[in-house]
Amino acid sequence: MRGLGTLLNVGAILLGSGIGTLLGERLPQRTADTITDGIGLIVLVVAALNIVAVRDEGFTAAVGSSAILVVLGAVVLGGITGSLANLEARTEGLGAWLKRHLVRKDGGQPRFVEGFVTASLVFVIGPLGILGSISDGMGHGIDQLALKAILDGITSIAFASAFGWGVSLSALAVGVYQIGWTIVGGLVGGLLPIAEISSITATGGVLLLGTGMRLLRVRAIPVADLLPALAVAPVLTWLLTTALHR
């Protein structure tokens, strides 16, 4: 059944969020803050691992030494697009709307929106979501998404213990994003070059750096405004590859 991997992933996030929320209600604020700092450090590590994709053999073979320039161009152009579209404010507005309609006024969670936005970014950005969904769409199995489900489930426990059950709504973002890639995999998965996937992965790593800095309270970088960079990166890669290999 195509799409099963994403359903498994969504279920793991919901389960982990439920467990984390129950644990978080019993933790003092200092402990919750420490957990958030720890998550921020891990996000920086994951970001670094993703950025290393600029050195992937398929990527460098396609664009030569310009791989980092592709990522730079994607971030700049994506940032311009996202800021003009005011994506950060729209994303936070969505989180606030969900909070107003889903959280009781007498038991509200002040970090609901932060949990929703941060968890959505962390769970969506990364190579496993793309590669696993494409593989699922092509009918090659759900091994990669099953691994991602385990990782996301464990991470959601930590997130929810710090931010509350707003983290559970990140499952919606994950479901929409990965089902989209599953459809792509079913239609043209076999034709999608590895260079384009590597460009998305590396660019996503840069965005995760911003997310980690937010979690560590270094600077509130508007990461959502940079999200269009994930769409710009493969386009720039294709254009550069076409120009270099004519």
What report would you give on this structure?
With 246 residues, this protein is mostly helical. It has one domain. Helices cover 76% and strands 0% of the residues. It is built from eleven helices and no strands. The longest helix has 23 residues. The radius of gyration is 18 Å and the shape is globular.
SSE blueprint and pairings:
Layout: H1 4-24, H2 29-51, H3 57-63, H4 67-84, H5 87-102, H6 112-124, H7 127-137, H8 143-163, H9 170-188, H10 194-215, H11 229-244
Helix pairs in contact: 1-8, 1-9, 2-8, 2-10, 3-10, 4-10, 4-11, 5-6, 6-8, 6-9, 7-8, 7-9, 10-11
In short:
With 246 residues, this protein is mainly alpha-helical.
Which key terms come to mind for this protein?
mainly alpha, 76% helix, 0% strand
- Subunit arrangement of the protein: single chain
How does the overall form come out from the CA principal axes?
A: globular
The total of helices stands at 11
Summarize the amount of helix as a percent range. over 70%
- Total beta strands: 0
Q: Termini distance?
A: 40 Å
Q: What's the domain count?
A: 1
Order of helices and strands: HHHHHHHHHHH
Q: Major β-sheet, in short?
A: none
Tell me the structural class.
mainly alpha
Instruction: Report strand %.
Output: under 5%
Weakly predicted, low-confidence segments: none
Tell me the Rg in angstroms: 18 Å
Q: Which whole number gives the mean pLDDT?
A: 85
